[in-house]
């Protein structure tokens, strides 16, 4: 009989510990949900990462990896413009899709080979 009482007591303690941990997780999830909601509500004021299709590019000047200066007036119409940084993870993720889009635009233009002889 003593073993049964000890087993029930240990089981009761385990249930109470589980209940306390579960309540802690619920509290953390509520806090996390509030933080996500706050973050999503503030993104409306942030500029979009990409301009919509057909949007006009504002005047700019940029330097190529070769050191040449390129501006909006140097580009032909239609032109696909993208700005990427070597230390930007999101830029690395979006670069392949950007290059595919650039190749498709180049192929549709009927110009043959792309910049620097790429297809």
How would you sum up this structure, described in words?
By secondary structure, this protein is mostly helical. It contains 2 helices and 2 strands; from the N terminus they run H-E-E-H. The model has no long low-confidence stretch (mean pLDDT 81).
Write the layout of secondary structure elements.
Blueprint: H1 2-42, E1 61-63, E2 69-71, H2 89-109
Antiparallel strand pairs: 1-2
Features:
119 residues, mainly alpha, 2 strands
Number of DSSP helices? Answer: 2
| Amount of beta strand | 5-15%
Structural class: mainly alpha
N-to-C span: 83 Å
Biggest sheet: strand arrangement: 1-2
Mean pLDDT comes to: 81
Contiguous uncertain segments of 5+ residues = none
The tally of beta strands, per DSSP, is 2
What does the main sheet amount to? 2 strands, antiparallel
Q: What general outline do the C-alpha atoms trace?
A: rod-shaped
Order of helices and strands: HEEH
Helix content estimate:
40-55%
State Rg.
Answer: 29 Å
Please sum up the structure shown.
By secondary structure, the protein is mainly alpha-helical.
């Amino acid at each position: 009989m003593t073993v049964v009482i000890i087993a029930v007591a240990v089981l009761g303690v385990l249930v109470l510990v589980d209940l306390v941990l579960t309540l802690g997780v619920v509290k953390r999830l509520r806090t996390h949900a509030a933080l996500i909601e706050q973050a999503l509500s503030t993104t409306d004021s942030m500029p979009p990462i990409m301009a919509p299709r057909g949007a006009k590019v504002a005047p700019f000047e940029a330097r190529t990896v070769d050191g040449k200066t390129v501006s909006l007036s140097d580009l032909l119409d239609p032109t696909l413009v993208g700005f990427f940084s070597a230390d930007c993870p999101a830029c690395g993720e979006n670069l392949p899709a950007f290059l595919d889009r650039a190749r498709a635009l180049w192929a549709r233009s009927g110009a043959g080979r792309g910049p620097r002889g790429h297809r």
